[in-house]
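4.2 Preliminary Data

To establish feasibility before requesting continued support, the project team ran the inverse folding procedure on a target of 424 residues. The structure was first converted into the token representation described in Section 3, and no sequence information of any kind was made available to the design step. The complete token record follows.
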């Protein structure tokens, strides 16, 4: 029978897995520098937890339910965080956690959109201050910058602004969530398709045109916010908060430009205030969203009677990985390959490999009977920089022969000289 992958999933070859793990390591290091600490939750959650009002109906339809009907695979990392906080009343607030784990969505697979993928989340629970929004945004931005992604834009909006604009154009309250889901697709599809979707829920085409024109009007950030405060109701406090957030984020010296975009919607139900997405560019082309987040002050309250504010940002690790794949990477972590001539020298070679490993160096060891040329071919195929060769002469002198696999140079060294040369 022919073997095949489940649609929307993928294997990572050794070189890809090394690159992916290094990407995660860079992100995690930035998170730790910002004072976030790790949390791990189960891959499965109770369906009652997953089916709460946190997700819209479309998102709930994408949850993988297990055969028992009572449990499902986690859809994101925010709901498990909310469930954890509700079950642990004694945590210190603000609670600053990071979590880098897989999530699953029963979505239609397409380029850079999978059914199984890794998210890297940071959240601050227990603060309404705009600096908590800014901290999660800045940590994510500095993480992608540390990975070499400098050409990106931060799109910023608020669910309060979207609701006010929908009210301005007389979109009925019972249709606003469906309208938000449609508008959220504006960056991913054509304007006509969005207007058609709005028409399908009963919004007149002329109203849709005017509303989208308002949302996409070309002004600077302050002009957009001032116009919004003048022409809509109930947004002045949020406009003030947004101006403070813009000023605060500006203090971090991020490389990405920040743009107010009233059409940014973020389709999940649980967002209550500021929302954002980071889009990167490659060869002048806009790529899919690589970072997203926002404020969700009502989510934890769905699981506990207490009203607990929260804000978070999520990095799409798989999308970052795809964006960064631009050449060959290492096939192995090993920087040294220990080769030996003849079985009689295997024990000496093992001792050398163990000494290198004990000094903190990553050393591979020949594990198959073959001649020295085949051993070196193997090391070269894995792009290992150094080969340590031992034979009778090396064993008798208690030395090794070190070959640089790049330039082909060789030298006879004792162990201390070997370690100094490699580390140097």
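Position-by-position output of the design step:
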């Amino acid at each position: 029978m022919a073997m095949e992958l489940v649609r929307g999933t993928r294997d990572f070859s050794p070189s890809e897995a090394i690159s992916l793990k290094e990407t995660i390591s860079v992100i995690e290091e930035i998170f730790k520098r910002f004072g976030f600490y790790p949390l791990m939750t189960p891959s499965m959650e109770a369906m009652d937890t997953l089916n709460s009002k946190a997700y819209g109906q479309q998102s709930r339809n994408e949850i993988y339910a297990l055969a028992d009907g009572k449990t499902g695979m986690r859809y994101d990392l925010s709901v498990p965080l909310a469930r954890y906080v509700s079950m642990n009343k004694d945590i210190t607030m603000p609670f600053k956690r990071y979590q880098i784990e897989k999530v699953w969505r029963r979505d239609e697979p397409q380029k850079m959109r999978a059914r199984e993928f890794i998210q890297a989340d940071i959240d601050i629970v227990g603060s309404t201050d705009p600096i908590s929004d800014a901290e999660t945004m800045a940590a994510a931005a500095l993480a992608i910058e540390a990975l070499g992604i400098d050409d990106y834009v931060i799109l910023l909006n608020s669910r309060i602004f979207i609701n006010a604009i929908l009210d301005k154009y007389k979109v009925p309250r019972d249709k606003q969530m469906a309208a938000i889901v449609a508008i959220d697709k504006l960056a991913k599809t054509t304007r006509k398709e969005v207007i058609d979707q709005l028409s399908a829920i009963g919004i007149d085409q002329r109203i849709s045109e005017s509303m989208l024109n308002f949302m996409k009007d070309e002004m600077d950030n302050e002009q957009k916010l001032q116009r919004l405060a003048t022409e809509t109701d109930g947004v002045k406090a949020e406009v003030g908060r947004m101006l403070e957030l813009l000023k605060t984020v500006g203090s971090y010296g991020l490389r990405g430009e920040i743009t107010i975009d009233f059409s940014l919607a973020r389709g999940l139900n649980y967002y209550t205030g500021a929302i954002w997405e980071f889009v990167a560019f490659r060869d002048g082309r806009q790529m899919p969203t690589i970072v997203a987040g926002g404020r969700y002050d009502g989510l934890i309250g769905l699981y506990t009677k207490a009203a607990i504010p929260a804000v978070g940002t999520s990095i799409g690790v798989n999308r970052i990985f795809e964006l960064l794949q631009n050449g060959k990477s290492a096939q192995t972590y090993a920087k040294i390959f220990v080769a030996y001539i003849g079985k009689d020298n295997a024990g000496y070679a093992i001792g050398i490999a163990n000494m290198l490993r004990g000094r903190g160096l990553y050393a591979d060891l020949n594990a198959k009977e073959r001649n020295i040329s085949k051993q070196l071919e193997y090391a070269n195929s894995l792009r290992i920089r150094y080969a340590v060769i031992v034979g009778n002469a090396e064993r008798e002198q208690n030395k090794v022969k070190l070959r640089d696999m790049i330039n082909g140079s060789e030298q006879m060294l004792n162990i201390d000289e070997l370690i100094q040369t490699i580390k140097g």
